[in-house]
Structures are given as C-alpha cells and as structure tokens.
C-alpha cells in the first residue's frame, strides 16, 4: 500500500459480472492505493465473493443500476465513510494499467488540478480497433457540442478526483452516459482538469464484455434526455 | 352512426365508473364533478357534432372533429411528458435507495 502525503487514496471499481477479472484488478489497484472499494452492481456470477476474497471493501447493489450509479455509490462511501482525499475510478476488466495511478495522482497532489482524466488518444502507441476508434472520435465531437469541453477522450473510465471534485460531481446518469455528465459538471463547476495519456489494453474478451459500440447510441439518448427532463 | 353510439356508450360507462369510485370514496367530489362534466361534454359532442364546428371556426380550425383531434394530441403529448418526468424521478429514487442499502449493509457488515 502506498501513501502520498498521508492522503487517504481510494480506488473505486464498479463491477458487473466480472468474475475471473475483478480479482486481478483489485490486486493491481491495491498496490497503489489505501483502500479498494468494489461496487458490485448486482452481478449474477461470483463477482461479489471474488471481490471480498481479494480483500476489497464490497458494496452490493440489490438491483442493477448501471456503471454511473455504481461509481456514485462508491464515491459516497469513499467520501463519507472512508474520508477519502483522492478517489480513483478504475475498471474491473483489467483494461487499465494500475502502474499509471501514481502518475495520474501527481497533478492533484501538486494542487494543479481537481480532476485528472485518462486519455488513450494522447498515447501514440495506442492500439485501438478501427471501428472503436471511429465511435470514440464521434463521442468526442458530440461531447464538444453538448458540454463545450475540449478533451481528447470522452469515454475513458480511468480518472482521478480530488475530494473537492468528487464532492462537486454528483453522477445522476446511471448508465454509460455518466462519462459525458462528468465532463459537463467539470465545465459547469469550473473544476481544473488535465488529461494524461493512459494505456487501455484491448483483448477479445474485454471487447466482448465492455461497452459495445451500439452502446454509443444509448449514451447519446441518455445525454439528450437528461437535457430535457 | 355506430361511432356515435359507441362514444355515448363509452361515456355512460365512464360516468358509471366515476360514480362508483366516488361512492366508494376513491375520488374526491372535485374530481368526480370534473369527470362527470367531461363525459357529459363527450355525449353532447356525440349527439351534436356540428356544435363543435362553431367553436372550431372561432379558433380558426375548419372542422370541429379536427379541433378535437388537435386538442387530444396536445393533451396526450403533455401527459406523456409528465409521465416521462415522473418515471425519471422514480428511476433516480430507486438508484438512491439502492445506494443507501448498499452503504448501510457494508456499514453493518452484512454484504
């Protein structure tokens, strides 16, 4: 476990049916943070027990509410119960490299940023399948139009938030559109943000399990709906 | 002719239904009167459809039947919007509840 200036650093891992992967993600993240909080979004497999065995604090959603909702549950717990100073959003499927956590935390420790966003497009070596690349670029343009915020990677789940940012960003879009909502709130609350290059590992398994490209349509729908209702 | 009879029969059924609801105190006198008058208007329109033409002409629509259709679309669209807003609120409440349960259970070591 690492401590940086005695700040309480908490990684939040939302997990839905991540049996076989979540254990690795927890062990990975635990090397760089003080506490790992897994939010089991009502998985139907052994995610819950696996996460517990791996030593994480496990919060269990009694019904499935989506990744956005799970992140917010973890954030509430980290802020109110663990008194977290720094919160990391980390994926359960092993696509992210925990070794990049210290680098992502830097700007917050130096008080240069309130939130650090991982970007796979800042990394030139990024090995992104072409179709996925097109969808992600579309997302960037959409977000620029809707939120008016300029980022190179809108739906990257690897983020680090200061306590201030985590308290100001309250995710209400339960499903995948939360990534756009976070960007909206960064702009609205005038939070200081910076993007850092991160590596996202694509494997056949994670591509199948992760957000499907069709999911992009659902995201656009949720974002538009949230602007009217 | 068949449509008119069906409309009247449906309205009578509506009046019967709302009277029963009122008698078993499921609706207030206020809502009973609103529904009662509404169904009476429907019966009146079914009996004298030409009467609506006068109102239609007054607001600038050619036929009474068209006017009713336009009003129906507006009312239905608005109701739909209200339902969506309510649904959205319920979704949020469900998420809040799920979150609360998750955190409480962890605090009490029940996960």
UniProtKB/TrEMBL annotation, chain B:
Domain of life: Bacteria
Annotated Pfam families: DUF2304
InterPro entries: DUF2304
Transmembrane feature ranges: 29-47, 67-85
UniProt keyword list: Membrane, Transmembrane, Transmembrane helix
Protein name in the entry: DUF2304 domain-containing protein
Species: Candidatus Uhrbacteria bacterium CG_4_9_14_0_2_um_filter_41_50
């Amino acid at each position: 476990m690492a401590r940086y200036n005695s700040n309480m650093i908490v990684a939040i891992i939302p997990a839905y049916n991540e049996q076989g992967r979540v254990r690795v993600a927890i062990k990975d993240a635990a090397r760089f943070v003080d506490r790992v909080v897994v939010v089991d979004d009502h998985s139907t497999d052994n995610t819950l027990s696996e996460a517990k065995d791996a030593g994480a604090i496990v919060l269990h959603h009694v019904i499935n509410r989506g990744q956005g909702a799970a992140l917010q549950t973890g954030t509430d717990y980290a802020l109110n119960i663990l008194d977290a100073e720094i919160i990391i959003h980390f994926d359960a499927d092993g696509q992210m490299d925990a070794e990049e956590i210290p680098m992502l935390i830097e700007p917050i420790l130096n008080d240069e940023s309130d939130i650090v966003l991982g970007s796979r497009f800042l990394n030139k070596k990024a090995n992104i399948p072409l179709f996925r690349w097109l969808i992600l670029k579309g997302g960037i343009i959409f977000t620029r139009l809707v939120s008016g915020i300029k980022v190179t990677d809108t739906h990257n789940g690897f983020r680090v938030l200061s306590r201030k940012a985590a308290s100001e960003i309250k995710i209400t879009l339960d499903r995948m559109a939360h990534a756009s909502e976070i960007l909206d709130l960064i702009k609205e609350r005038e939070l200081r943000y910076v993007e850092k290059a991160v590596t996202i590992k694509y494997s056949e398994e994670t591509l199948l399990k992760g957000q499907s490209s069709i999911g992009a349509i659902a995201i656009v729908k949720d974002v538009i709906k949230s602007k009217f209702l | 002719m068949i449509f008119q009879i069906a409309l009247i029969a449906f309205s009578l059924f509506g009046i019967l239904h709302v009277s029963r609801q009122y008698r078993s105190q499921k609706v207030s006198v206020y809502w009973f009167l609103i529904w009662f008058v509404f169904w009476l208007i429907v019966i009146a329109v079914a009996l004298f459809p030409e009467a609506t033409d006068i109102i239609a002409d007054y607001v600038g629509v050619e036929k009474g039947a068209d006017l009713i259709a336009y009003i129906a679309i507006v009312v239905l669209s608005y109701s739909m919007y209200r339902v969506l807003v309510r649904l959205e609120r319920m979704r949020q409440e469900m998420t809040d509840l799920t979150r609360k349960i998750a955190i409480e259970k962890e605090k009490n070591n029940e996960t």
